[in-house]
Design brief:
Length: about 200
């Protein structure tokens, strides 16, 4: 989330409080939870690195994406196909580290649509979408040379997901916004999740 987005959210909350004061009714503003990374892992039913193969934002009441598991850390194995949602702006063809909750009910396409994937069991991204972490090749890491500074990374919103000291985070382009997300080296995060997965078995 950008600094501008955080200002917009603050303005909306302030507006809601003003309306509440004027109308006498009570409005509760909710925010995503703040998790330590290990606690997020424990809280999730399934955790995996996945590659998004397709998505459908029309056939269902929420956005549903189809993905192939590249590496499973909890409750999933490499090669499995999963369906997840409900947040938009997931990039097709990209890889994500997902922390997911089981949804006890299958989701069906809406009437008068092309049917999407049909009736599917889908897993939920939670914590207002912060449990979905995009991976990408970035040149934001510390290093004596360009080769050391560029690496595959994972975008973690560190205002809500607190990293252990063993996983250093780097701001995009060296910027240090007061609110936002950082990049961590993909290999470091995957190693950490692999250790957690081993302990959970």
């Amino acid at each position: 989330m950008t600094y501008l987005s955080s200002l917009l959210i603050a303005a909306l909350v302030a507006g809601a409080q003003l309306v509440t004061a004027q109308s006498g009714s009570k409005v509760t503003a909710t925010e995503p939870g703040v998790y330590r990374l290990a606690d997020l892992f424990t809280h999730a039913d399934k955790v995996a690195l996945v590659r998004v193969t397709s998505g459908n934002t029309e056939a269902y009441d929420v956005a549903i994406y189809k993905a192939q598991v590249v590496e499973g850390f909890k409750g999933l194995s490499a090669g499995e196909t999963i369906y997840f949602g409900p947040y938009i702006r997931t990039e097709l063809g990209s890889e994500y580290i997902l922390f997911l909750r089981d949804n006890p009910r299958a989701i069906e396409p809406k009437a008068k649509t092309d049917g999407g994937y049909g009736k599917v069991k889908y897993l939920e991204v939670f914590d207002e979408g912060y449990s979905s972490m995009l991976t990408s090749y970035e040149c934001v890491f510390n290093g004596a040379s360009v080769n050391q500074g560029c690496d595959y990374g994972v975008r973690v919103c560190t205002d809500y997901i607190k990293l252990p000291e063993s996983i250093p985070a780097f701001a995009t382009g060296g910027d240090q916004p007061p609110f936002g997300c950082r990049w961590v080296r993909k290999a470091t995060l995957i190693s950490f999740l692999g250790d957690l997965g081993g302990k959970s078995k």
